Amino acid sequence: MSSQVVIGFGPAGAATARLLAEKGHSVRVITRSGRTPEPGIEHVKADAADGRSLIEAARGATAIHHCAAPPLHRWATEWAPLTAAACAAAEETGAVLVMLGNLYGYGPVDGPMTEELPLAATGTKGRVRARAWEHARSLHEQGRIKAVEVRACDFFGPTVTDGGHLAGRVMPALLRGRAVSTLGDPSVPHSWTYLPDVAEAMVEVAGEERAWGRAWHCPTQPPLSVREMVDLLAAEAGTSPVAVRGLPPAVLGLGALFSPLLRELKEVRYQFDRPFVVDSRAYEAEFTTRATPLEEQVKATVDWWRKREGAAR
After folding, report:
1. DSSP for 118-172, written as a single string
2. What percent of the chain has pLDDT over 70?
3. Rounded to an integer, what distance in angstroms lies between the CA atom of residue 48 and that of residue 157?
4. Is the omega angle on the peptide bond into residue 241 within 30 degrees of 0, that is, cis?
5. CA angle at residue 16 from 36 to 142, to 5 degrees?
6. Structure confidence at residue 249 (pLDDT)
7. How far apart are the first and last CA of the chain?
8. Which residues touch 54 (CB under 8 Å, ≥6 apart)?
9. Which one of 29, 52, 82, 265 is least enclosed by Cβ atoms within 10 Å?
């Protein structure tokens, strides 16, 4: 098996690193803080935005999985250095660069999103993500690096906490049978990408040369509204029915005065005010990873949150 590097150890980075270790790869995780080693995973303390440090940490690797994500309010200043360093490490070491992307780069669209859509976002966060991939793709087309991007919709599943729209703001209240609040209209269709499927796709494309040079949408189940997802989660938890309330714009505006996260979410609120649907058929036509059945996603998520909340009490 090969040696592979994972940049970042948030939910996606951790899931990818652990999946690689389970498959027998030697895994090196790069974070600013470092961590205690775990079976098959070496944790290295380094600044991933420092190209020289990242190059040294990535020597000998066959793939670099770029899963780092600064806080939303620092995207404008921190994404470009992270991308530049990851590309430099890929060029110096010859490792394939597997970038974890999202759907912000498309901006508001009408209809399901495919990989053929232009990256036409006008907001800061959307343009930052679009430029990151455009830079890596340009280097790939010049023959300087090997790069591929896996784009996911909103993360859902075990270990997704503060950053998920069906996570920290929903699950603790839902498990207690209380009403939950959500961004935008809770009745519009929305795609949810299950976190373990993200890891599976990241690992799969790293080893598939025919995947390189373009972006792919991670296999994702058909869309369901926030209200439909909450109903499924509450039924699994045995606490249904649970009321679901959309967060009014005025409340969001007031909260944004005090919360950096809510302030940044105003730019992408359109994703929850209108249908936001990802089409992952292109990936599914070429590769083996499939979206986990919805009932398995729901059960695993409720079980994880029940254990987490039980431990917290």
Report:
1. -----SHHHHHHHHHHHHHHHHHHTTS-EEEEEE--EEESTT--TT-TTTTTTHH
2. 94
3. 26
4. yes
5. 115
6. 66
7. 42
8. 7, 30, 46, 47, 48, 85, 86, 88, 89
9. 52
What local confidence, expressed as pLDDT, does residue 31 receive?
95
The CA distance from 221 to 235, in Å, is: 19
User: What is the model's pLDDT at position 254?
Assistant: 61
**Rounded to 5, what percent of the chain is helix, strand, coil?**
45, 15, 40
Query: What pLDDT does 219 receive?
Result: 98
Distance CA 118, CA 60 (A): 35
The per-residue pLDDT for 250 is 65
Angle, in degrees to the nearest 10, between helices 75-93 and 124-141? 10
Q: pLDDT value at position 104?
A: 96
Quick check: 124 and 267 in contact, CB under 8 A? Answer: yes
Tell the residue number behind the tokens 């690193």, with chain if given: 17
**Token digits for 102?**
């999202």
Entry field: residues in the chain: 313
Q: Is 186 exposed, middle or buried (0-12, 13-18, 19+ CB in 10 A)?
A: buried
**What amino acid occupies position 286?**
E
Kindly give the parts of the chain with pLDDT less than 70. 249-263, 311-313
Per-residue pLDDT, 256: 57
In this structure, what token pair is assigned to residue 71?
Answer: 């806080």
